[in-house]
Amino acid sequence: MEVLSRGLKKLTASNACQPYRTRSRSLPPSHLLFADDTTIFTNDSRSSIRNLVAFLQKFKNISSLKINNSKSSFLASSKMLLLRTHNIERISSWKARFLNQAARTTLIKHVLSSIPVHILAAVDVPIKMLQTLESKLADFFWGWSEGSKKFHWVSWRRITYPTKEGGLGIKPLREISAALRLKRAWTIFFAHKNTLWAKFMRSKYMINDSRESASQRNIDSPAWKGIRKLLHLVEDNSHLLLGDDNSNVWNDNL
Hints:
By secondary structure, this protein is mostly helical. It has three domains: 2-71, no CATH class; 77-171, no CATH class; 177-236, no CATH class. Helices cover 49% and strands 5% of the residues. It has eleven helices and four strands; from the N terminus they run αββαααααββααααα. It has helices spanning 2-13, 46-63, 77-95, 101-110, 117-120, 127-142, 156-159, 173-189, 196-205, 222-229, 231-236, and strands spanning 31-34, 37-40, 144-145, 148-149. A hairpin with a 2-residue loop joins β1 and β2. The chain is globular and about 60 Å long.
């Protein structure tokens, strides 16, 4: 995949494939690699799409690595969570018929609840969508009888209580989403991490990595607005711990 990565960088550097841009001082990502998945960022010009497709075809011919067209698609942000919802529905429809309730509980904890996590880690998902996802999980938990949903004897909120409080310990998606939002705010404003995502967000919405310069405009993305709203919550629940005698309060990165 090193050849693919270098080729995509070269394609973007030569402007044969125009990068995805937001503002002039933002870092334009060309692609991301995770396990056996590749996400490529580009604008919607015909020349960029044409050159990108030609490059992928050339890569396939040279490497003999075939691109699975059935698993490849063009995604806009508004379609991503809908895709995850369809995945949950597809898994639920056939798995529920062959599993008892204990097995379905295990599947929810370790598989179904994890499907939307990557989306929740990146964007602020509307509460209505989270409620829809949890409704799908509840339907799967209780199962079906003769093609219709079984009665839900206990509310989903009660089921997601910790086991010590009488629940089954399934983590509610709304709490997962809130925790991930706080983590994003901590990563950008306090952790001083130089991950690609953190550098991109700082360069787009901040000046010289200063929290005081954080953008508060109406045209900012929903993801940034959600992070910005949590700044005071992170500040109120954070405190500094001094190190050993070698600490220097003037020069150390607090």
